[in-house]
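PadR family transcriptional regulator
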Amino acid sequence: MHHGHPHHRHPHHGHHRHGHDRRFARREHGLDLHPFGHGRHGRGGGRFFASGDLRLVILQLIAEKPRHGYELIKGIEERVGGAYSPSPGVIYPTLTLLEDLGHVAAEAGEGGGKRLHRITEEGRAFLEANRPAVEALLARMAEAGRRHGGEPAPQVLRAMENLKMALRLRLGRGPLTEEQANAIAAALDAAATGVERA
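Tokens:
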């Protein structure tokens, strides 16, 4: 008798331990996170990382400096320019797996607070053995960041439109004297300098 699909454990219910990474290779907020060997083009938002790729990215970030789980989420967000934000339900099971594999060691924070994750010698060796894949992933993340970062932030767009409107209104009031033209040019040059230095 068919009883429908069995219920999977929800990825947000704490730090579950899984027998292997396919347990948490599931659709996570519209992103298919599959183990190695599966397609990555996906539908809709597409797949950003296969689970094996995510392990390498997390190891790379922890190799750079020990990090808490939320720092890994922010670190990945920064690398991809906000194009993708992994949920705790993806990050923490991956960290658990890396601990089980001996690639990462975790220590409790002060007062039993958030755990800090450090890379082990085994983890560093695994990272180096997979260096070409790691470099390819970092390049793909940087490219995603460049593409996503092509649109200015909302406040920048507002300011750009405000500047264009101010110019149109001022120039529409009639011819400028040399003094007025110099003042407007100086204001625009000052804005350009400020943007370059930002």
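Residues 4-46 have pLDDT under 50 and may be disordered.
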